[in-house]
Design goal:
Layout (H helix, E strand, L loop, with lengths): L1 H16 L9 H8 L3 H10 L9 E6 L5 E7 L4 E6 L13 H8 L17 E5 L2 E11 L4 E6 L4 E7 L11 E2 L5 E5 L18 E9 L2 E2 L2 E2 L2 E12 L3 E7 L7 E8 L2 E8 H6 L3 E3 L2 E4 L8 E5 L6 E4 L5 E5 L3 E5 H5 L5 E3 L4 E5 L5 E6 L5 E6 L4 E6 L5 E6 L7 E2 L12 E6 L16 E7 L7 E8 L7 E5 L13 E2 L4 E2 L10 E5 L2 E9 L2 E3 L2 E5 L3 E8 L8 E5 L4 E5 L4 E7 L4 E6 L12 E7 L17 H34 L6 H29 L3 H32 L5
Helix pairs in contact: 7-9, 8-9
The structure holds copper (II) ion.
Length: 727
């Protein structure tokens, strides 16, 4: 009874007291309605990105076991893209088209594609110790792989399997001029991959040679396995590592654990480059005995979580109980020895409990450390050891990053701290597994840091992210028509408009097709059950972001075709029947027209549909197509009139005097010239009374016309701007 009364009151209360929704027309009204403070308002303004605004930094972070990479913006903390790296990713056809499947198969010792990864600490390519915006690298710890991504198109270009180690510490480290990408093993094991004799267990540091090949709009640099090598390492468990720069250039540092003790090791890797090599698992290896005179072991007083080289390269900053600042020059003079940390200690800075990570910013000698158990981040001077200030957080920070923080020139007023468990109490519950979070902390003030924003990441680990000045990266807008995006080379399977074809040799069928708004050519493909079929498709678009997807119903084949890209989909046509294929990206208002059908004729089948009947139209159907054709001709005429008027206008105003306008006009003329054969075709088929073909070709001509008109109008707009006319 009491409960009922309560319920009645509550319901009544809701009815009576629900405030009317008011228009939120002023900042004060919104703040009042949402209970926001002035501090909230300031944080909101700092992170708000107006439409058309561009973030200052790009962040990349691995999705851990998901094997993909997330690209996001700072300070808006908007997520821009997921990119397949170690795992198949269907949206972009990664691991589904032949080109990317081949790429992933090369990463496997036995042709098996591992369907996940363990990716934690990525790296950017560097020139003279600064991020140059050309490549990103990831390590898959679980399946011992390395990946190279091109930042010209944010795509994975190469994944290789480590020939020595079957597991790796999930970090990629790059030398100051990207001569090498370095990976260490994590857990020691026998190098003979079939052996279970743990008495033979060893570790290794692998130096993947990177060959730089890039020019404007092309990043064709690749890892060259034949020029790469590994250094044999005693059976320590290896952890986070970093590479020297400036005065410490040529040294490689890392954390090593054994028998309950923690060490920093240092290796003069330039010595290893020229040292004697032996072949192990068909890979060059420097035996430890041949390099140990160039390796130092520094025993630490406590377990450590992180080691990073300071931006100018003078120190190693180690997150142990305290933050230990070790002198790189002293370490260098102790190569070949095992020493205690005291011998190379510059400063020992007490920060707080559970120090996990350190990072640097643009201020001279300034570093940050996260004290996980104390829920705070401390700013300090690693040269003097003096603490500056700290920010108390309502979560327990683990890894921290400042944009460009691992380069010689950290660059930012922001710091990002990642965290998993502690912050969850403040987020809406979404079932047992919840997102990871990244917190944006404003470090612009010299004396005070402020936590201003929390971004949830639905598929992300809580390890390293790396941030780069966005303008350092110069991505391309389209590929040259017919490009294999994995190699950056022209695809031998590319097709151009009007030369689409189907080739058959025995039971091997190659379809050379094209995609352009709003047609897939060819529209009908007939094969026999059991044929091995490949669709080689080229996206002929030149317009920005005019991507077409391609899927064949129930055949499990999918590809993504960005402007200019050629990719191939191979499968055995073992299921009989009629299978529609279509574009899976919304590409224009006529997107639904992008369809066709795969006819797989069943073996020995004599029932209805044996004669596919394609091209055989009833009188009614023919009449319908004739009518559609005639209507299309009217539209073509109208569009032609628009184009002519634009051309007249451009000529009258001497467009040729303005190079950018001239380039656009040339583009439009190119489009129309390309369309010529479609015009010939529709006229020919109309003459023959083949109204369906006539209509389809007229439609195709119209598509070219529309694009030419579009470019023409842009040329006119630009010309008007040059002439100072009002828009
Ligand atoms: Cu489309």
């Amino acid at each position: 009874m009491k409960q009922l009364k309560w319920l009645a009151l509550t319901v009544l209360g809701l009815v009576v007291f629900v405030p009317r929704v008011k228009a939120q027309s002023t900042v004060d009204a919104v703040m009042k309605a949402r209970g926001l403070t002035d501090k909230d308002k300031l944080a909101a303004v700092k992170t708000f990105m107006p439409r058309g605004g561009r973030d200052e930094y790009f962040g990349i972070v691995g999705t851990g076991n998901s094997g993909t990479m997330i690209v996001y913006g700072v300070p808006s903390m908007r997520i821009y893209k997921y990119v397949g790296v170690f795992s198949p990713e269907p949206w972009q056809g990664y691991g589904y088209d032949d080109e990317s499947q081949l790429l992933l198969k090369k990463s496997s010792l036995d042709d098996r594609i591992p369907w996940y990864g363990d990716m934690r600490f990525p790296a950017y390519s560097e020139t003279n110790g600064d991020y140059d915006g050309k490549y990103a690298f990831f390590t898959d710890g679980a399946n011992a792989r390395v990946a190279l991504l091109g930042l010209d198109d944010f795509e994975t270009k190469q994944v290789l399997s480590n020939p020595i180690m079957n597991n790796l510490f999930p970090e990629a480290t790059v030398t100051p001029n990207t001569e090498y990408v370095i990976q260490t093993g994590q857990y020691p094991h026998p190098w003979d991959m079939r052996s279970t004799d743990m008495g033979q267990a060893k570790n290794a540091i692998t130096f993947w040679k990177v060959k730089r090949m890039e020019k404007e709009g092309e990043h064709k640099g690749r890892i060259i396995k034949e020029k790469s090598f590994a250094i044999e390492f005693p059976p320590y468990q290896l952890d986070y590592n970093d590479v020297g720069k400036g005065p410490s250039d040529g040294l490689f540092f890392g954390l090593a654990f054994k028998d309950g003790k923690a060490y920093v090791y240092a290796v003069d890797y330039k010595k290893a480059v020229s040292a004697k090599k032996t072949r192990v698992n068909d890979f060059d290896v420097v035996k430890f005995d041949d390099i140990k005179g160039s390796v130092a072991f520094i025993e630490l007083p406590a377990k450590a979580n992180m080691v990073k080289v300071s931006p100018e390269g003078k120190y190693l900053v180690v997150a142990a109980d305290n933050v230990l600042v070790l002198d790189a020059a002293k370490i260098k003079s102790n190569l070949g020895k095992s020493i205690k940390a005291d011998a190379v200690m510059h400063k020992s800075v007490p920060i707080g409990k559970g120090v996990v990570d350190v990072t640097f910013d643009y201020r001279k000698n300034i570093a940050y450390a996260s004290a996980h158990d104390d829920s705070k981040i401390v700013r300090f001077n690693y040269e003097t050891g003096a603490k500056k200030d700290e920010v108390k957080l309502d979560f327990k920070p683990s890894y921290i990053t400042v944009p460009q923080g691992n380069s010689m020139h950290p660059h930012s007023n922001y710091l990002i701290a990642v965290d998993k468990e502690a912050y969850l109490k403040n987020l809406p519950k979404t079932g047992p597994v919840r997102p990871s979070v990244q917190h944006l902390i404003d470090i612009s003030d010299d004396n005070e840091m402020t936590d201003i924003y929390t971004m949830t990441l639905p598929q992300a680990n809580v390890y390293g992210n790396e941030l780069i000045l966005r303008t350092t990266i110069k991505p391309i807008i389209r590929y040259p028509t017919g490009t294999n995006s994995r190699t950056g080379e022209p695809s031998p399977f590319r097709a151009v408009a009007g030369q689409e074809k189907i080739e058959r040799k025995g039971n091997r069928v190659h379809v050379f097709g094209t995609l352009i708004r709003s047609h897939i050519t060819p529209e009908i493909v007939e094969v026999n059950q059991g044929d091995i079929v490949t669709f080689h498709l080229t996206n002929l678009e030149r317009a920005e972001d005019e991507t077409h997807g391609f899927t064949i119903d129930t055949y499990g084949k999918h590809g993504s075709f960005e402007p200019g890209k050629t990719a191939s989909l191979t499968f055995v046509a073992d299921r009989a029947g009629a299978f529609p294929y279509y574009c899976t990206e919304f590409c224009s208002a006529l997107h639904l027209e992008m369809e066709g059908i795969l006819m797989v004729k069943p073996k020995g089948y004599k029932g209805p549909g044996t004669d596919l009947g394609a091209g055989k139209l009833s009188k009614e159907e023919l009449a319908k197509y004739k009518k559609q054709y005639e209507e299309k001709l009217k539209v073509i005429k109208q569009t032609g009139d628009v184009i002519n008027s634009v051309v007249d206008y451009l000529k009258k105003n001497h467009y040729e005097k303005y190079p950018y306008v001239k380039a656009l006009v040339q583009d439009a003329v190119d489009q129309l010239n390309k369309a010529k054969f479609t015009e010939d075709n529709y006229k020919k088929y109309a003459k023959e009374g083949k109204w369906k073909d006539a209509f389809l070709w007229a439609e195709q001509y119209f598509q070219y016309q529309v694009k030419a008109a579009d470019v023409g109008l842009r040329a006119k707009k630009l010309l008007d701007e040059k002439l100072g006319k009002e828009q």
